[in-house]
Structures are given as structure tokens and as C-alpha cells.
Amino acid sequence: MQGIEKYSGALQSYLDEVITLKEPIRLYEPIKYIVSLGGKRLRPVLTLLSCEMFNSDYKKALPAALALELFHNFSLIHDDIMDEAPLRRGKETVHQKWNLNTGILSGDAMLILAYQFFEEYDPIMFRELAKLFSKTALQVCEGQQYDVDFETKNDVTIPDYIKMIDYKTAVLLGASMKMGAIVANASEECKTNSYDFGRNLGIAFQLQDDYLDCFGNPETFGKQIGGDIIANKKTFLYIKAIENSSEEDKMILEKLLSEKPEDPTSKIKTVLEIYNKSGATKETLNEISSYTQKANIVLSKLVISDENRKILLSFGEKLMKRNV
Predict the structure, then answer these.
(1) What is the CATH number of the domain that holds 183?
(2) Burial call 33-62: b when 16+ CB within 10 Å, e when fewer
(3) Range of the structural domain that residue 74 is part of
(4) What pLDDT sits at residue 218?
């Protein structure tokens, strides 16, 4: 296996070939726009990587990989609408650049296009891929609903939160790994372990995303810093800060996360100070490390070459050291 950069290049070429502008332009232009923003493309890269590490031609997994990328971007369009987010990957979100109705409709079209890519496989493989995709897509919707529910729920626990990010983010990374294994005709045990590796890495990834939302560099992160605080989201950082803080700081936090000031600068500053003071920041970093280790334990069980194992290990390590 060569460096993982080749997967991004192959995916881009395939994407340019199959995602084209056609009538009605206002339906397909936003699709072209959101996928052209690039991003990490973590999910499709994992699918291609997984396929090749089980000694199959990674190009066979391109349709499945692109299906996942389209679904992920569909969920981002709708997520940005629900969060009223102005930026995605440093650029205007689809509903900001066009309008709300266009964002909803183009997102819906992306979901349908994603399913169509599974038609590239034989009936048996199509059934297995589509079954996994449907289950995962529904879990992502459930995770998104949990996320919305948490905004008005006052007793969100750490297990509640982990389940939410598991469904909203991690299961899709698990499915990305498993789809590559399915296309490669890997054993059932390898499919399961691939899924578990991706899922644990996905939880670590989302916790890291939450951390960067608060403490990342806005120029490299590509999203508004403090976006979760502005949206009054009860993240791992918030829940831990509530658990660990004095009654006074707890009351301040709860009050701030019930408000939406026109200028949130002071709100963000105060919340971040309490996160650091309470030890929530450090505990979040420890949790990221814990789930990364869980992923690596599963990785050790995969029946793959030592070279491929090192590549996956390195991939996970780089992911957890990112600033975007």
C-alpha cells in the first residue's frame, strides 16, 4: 500500500467524473459546491484504505466510498440548517449561499444519489452494502435528534452524550471501514473488527471536534470557534464542567447556555474559562486518548499485514493531532 494521499486523489477524480452540473442547475450546483469544498474526506478514505488492506483493489470500493461522502455531506447541509451555521470548511454554508429551500432539496437529492452508487455492485454485495447503509443512516438521524433534544434537556449525562455522538458521527466511520471490508470480501470477523475500529475512532474524532470547536484555530478549523457554545449545545466539555464546578460557576454556565446574545464574545470567553478551571478541558483530552486506545486494541485483532496495521495506526494518530 502506498501513502493514503492516493485515495484522496482517486476519489477526487471519480467525483469529478460522476458529479456534474445538469438541469435543474439550482438543484445540482449546491451539490457540486459542497463536495468541492473538500474537507478531510475521512469516511471515503477509510473505505478505500479498508478495501486495500484486505488485499483487494481499492478502486473497486470507489462507488461505496462516494456514497458515504455524499451521505455525509447531505447530513452536513441539513445539520448547518438546523444549527443556523454561517460557515462550513471556511466557506458559506449552502443555505446561506442559496436559501433554505435549496439547502433542503439539494440535501435530499444527495441522499438519493448516494443510494444509486450501490447499484454498481452485484446483487449480493448490493444487499449487504445497502443494508449497512440504511441502518447507519437511520442511526445518524437518531443521533441528530438526540443532539436537538439535549438543547432543552437539563439532565444530560456523559453516557447520554457518548451515545449521541456514537450515533451521529461514529457509526458512519464504522460503516466506512466495514464497507471497504465488504467490497474486499473479507471474513465476517474482519468486517466486525473493521467496524469496531472505525466506531471507536469516530467517538474520539467527535470529541476532538468538540474540543477544537472551543479551542481550535479559526483559520485552520474552518468553522466558527465557539459555535457549540453559541448554539447552547451540551457537549462533553459542558457536562464535565457542570459535574466538576462550584455551585457559583455551575449557575453561571447554566445561565449562559440558556441565552443567545447578539454578540456572543463575552459568553464564549466566560464559558471557556470555566471549562479550563473545572478540569473539563483536560478530561476531554483524556477521553479522546481513551477512545483512540480502544480503536488501537481492536486494530491489533485485525488479520492484516504489519505494514497495513502501521498505516492505520498512523492514520488514527494523525487524526487525533489535527487542528482542522
Answers:
(1) 1.10.600.10
(2) bbbebebebbbbbbbbbbbbbbebebebbb
(3) 5-320
(4) 67
